[in-house]
């Protein structure tokens, strides 16, 4: 069985030495959030997750969820763990104190989510969706809806679900057919079917609040005619307690590759009572508040999978004895961690996981700055960062999570392919992160097709600017040259590719689609190169005699020599245009 131990030392290193948590000190609500406070929060979260959530991972995968007479039962132990989660106030960590939240930084909620995603990805989905629902309601809901629903959602007493997809409307939400009809009393009656609804029905919370995309009777066609509605499983009574059951049912549960402990529902709405959230025909804009938050969180899930795979691969490689040292025929066998090829895999896992954590946490700190900093210029700059890095974090980290799950299986050899060690479950669970909340291809298209041109094209500076600043500051630092030199070359390649894509798209409309996924990988590698350069700088300043910092320097050297040069191998594919991708007729495949 796979085991999990929260990587608290590395989390604290990233927060306190790499991503500038001190930038939040100018925000009134975070004035008392010191390293001691953040360290204490992470330690308490680790105790809960290691003790109560991680043990659910393997048995919950085997047992799965059950649907009987429209009611969904989660695996054994989920209800007890969720109760501890709610009673500990963990769902309220970063939400507004006005509605019962603790008002702590968003970055801490992502660290918490990383732990949960590593320990049990299926369980982590319940608070993930609820947090997104809270964000959408706080920004777009009217006062009455916020006052009634937000305190209960933030506490975890009630949970949330995002209901977009229909059988004919996956990524193209313009095809949504669900209807909402005014009822004359300020409410609406919602009719339609939604599929792939994570946690649409379960037994953990007292009530489940669905955010449903639907069309009003006089709505214009296409994407501009969609509105968002709040549809609760139980209609609140005058005291705000769950009352009459709404006219919505779970028709079936999907049989899935992984995340078996999370119910993926087909939901039917048959004149269900709903309430408009935001203005009419503004559902897409409003839902993206929820979806963009969820995309960062799904990137966090990818990071969690990468951490879980890395931890278990390293532990197994230390224990498993097989073969002899290179060049030695006789003698005792050694632990496989002594073999160079295994070291290559483990260092790849370490470098991508720890670098990815730094990129994700840096983006999360910018979410806090964009939401709460008193200076408008700081908020605007941070928002640029968040918008650029949301698709990068989502796609790069989830691809990494799945790839490292596969690499972890490779470290285990045949033992990784069987259920006993839990490695194959990491691969099965993590693949969904590349698909939901917008497939990674859609993330890449968002980056190259929208974000590069947004606000006069300035967003890419949120990636390239800090790299240039670091390189300028360290240009005479010979000890750091092992990574600054290849990072300089990678930065120049990225800037050249960016200009190539911008210019080429004018004459080749298929270029963005052909180049998008590869371009996003280049952006991710350069972003991680920036983080590893920062980490190496911090490690050199700390001195070489500490094992933790020696590990950072070794991983930084490996990233600089084995992973960052991938940028130059990817670049020709971006420059090749779309002709080789599009020349084959569809019927010739």
Q: Which percent band covers the strand fraction?
A: 5-15%
| Secondary structure category | alpha+beta
Helix content: 55-70%
The value of Rg in angstroms is 24 Å
Question: Can you put this structure into words, describing what you see?
Answer:
It is a single chain. The protein is an alpha+beta fold and 589 residues long. The chain has a domain of 136 residues. 55% of the residues lie in helices and 12% in strands. Strands 3, 4, 5, 6, 7, 10 and 11 form a 7-stranded mixed β-sheet that branches. The chain has a two-stranded antiparallel sheet with strand order 1-2. Helix 1 runs antiparallel to helix 2, helix 5 runs antiparallel to helix 6 and helix 8 runs antiparallel to helix 12. The longest helix has 37 residues.
Brief digest:
The protein has 19 helices and 11 strands.
List the helices and strands and how they pair.
Layout: H1 8-18, H2 35-53, H3 57-63, E1 66-68, E2 71-73, H4 78-87, H5 106-119, H6 121-140, H7 143-155, E3 158-163, E4 179-182, E5 188-198, E6 207-214, E7 227-232, E8 234-236, E9 242-245, E10 248-253, E11 264-277, H8 283-319, H9 340-372, H10 376-412, H11 414-417, H12 423-430, H13 440-451, H14 461-473, H15 481-504, H16 511-542, H17 547-563, H18 566-575, H19 579-582
Helix pairs in contact: 1-2, 1-9, 2-5, 5-6, 5-8, 5-9, 6-7, 6-8, 8-9, 8-10, 8-12, 9-10, 9-16, 9-17, 10-12, 10-13, 10-16, 13-16, 14-15, 14-16, 15-16, 15-17, 15-18, 16-17, 16-18
Features:
12% strand; 55% helix; seven-stranded mixed sheet; alpha+beta; globular; 589 residues; 11 strands; 19 helices
